[in-house]
């Protein structure tokens, strides 16, 4: 899109320097032909170093922009980004893409649907009622059980197992809210990348990223009924037990274990080899590796056991 078109959609003005914009991205990752946004002063450092061609921004932060970056000043940059995200969302399916590529010795149920542009590796088993979206890739020796849905652009590695009714690449729970309390969908234009040797249980949902990728690293084991929000990163060989969940943009280090119904708030980082007992509630980043935690508010597991013992004595 021309930058002038974007400015018209967002009802703001720009200088005469009209340029082509090919995508929308974060301040850190935006390229010279992309647009970005900033809605919080804590991202000023990223703002000063961004390579974006233009940034949707509030008036009070506009002075922080690099000299070669064009400001699009709006009252609510987050709302404006939500409006714009729709224009850069890819189509759900693309009939003009080439027919799916199916690898050697792969067995595809006649009841499965593989969209144009998808690639299936060698020795895969794709069972009935599976849907694999446009430009998605499934690696070699991977088994996809019935009624799994893999949205467009997602990547599944080699030697993976995905159990029935799981959804990979559905939209993250993202929306902007204006001063009237109205909500505007933020289109999730990233994808999900599942690396090699990952097993995912049934009825699990892994949301695609807003920008970039939601990443499940190699060797991870995910149980049934797990929720992983957009832009999360699960470290190598981590374990997520049934009904555990992560809010968006939280990153787990390698070999993190989350017990049943354990949950983490968004935008956190969890140190490697951390273990969380069932129903743990993680509300702050965990920086020290190799510790075991329990409870809500979260505390060391031994401390939590002592607390439970004291409570039991009080009610006798």
UniProtKB/TrEMBL annotation:
Keyword Repeat among record annotations: yes
CDD domains xrefs: LbH_LpxD (cd03352)
UniProt keywords, alphabetically: Acyltransferase, Lipid A biosynthesis, Lipid biosynthesis, Lipid metabolism, Repeat, Transferase
Pfam family, one: Hexapep
EC number: 2.3.1.191
GO cellular component: membrane
Pathway: Bacterial outer membrane biogenesis; LPS lipid A biosynthesis
Catalytic residues (UniProt): 230 (proton acceptor)
Sequence ranges assigned to domain UDP-3-O-[3-hydroxymyristoyl] glucosamine N-acyltransferase non-repeat region in this UniProt record: 18-86
GO biological process: lipid A biosynthetic process
Catalytic activity: a UDP-3-O-[(3R)-3-hydroxyacyl]-alpha-D-glucosamine + a (3R)-hydroxyacyl-[ACP] = a UDP-2-N,3-O-bis[(3R)-3-hydroxyacyl]-alpha-D-glucosamine + holo-[ACP] + H(+)
Single GO term (MF): N-acyltransferase activity
EC main group: transferase
Quaternary structure, from the entry: Homotrimer.
Family indicated by similarity: Belongs to the transferase hexapeptide repeat family. LpxD subfamily.
Function: Catalyzes the N-acylation of UDP-3-O-acylglucosamine using 3-hydroxyacyl-ACP as the acyl donor. Is involved in the biosynthesis of lipid A, a phosphorylated glycolipid that anchors the lipopolysaccharide to the outer membrane of the cell.
Name the record gives this protein: UDP-3-O-acylglucosamine N-acyltransferase
Source species: Sulfurimonas sediminis
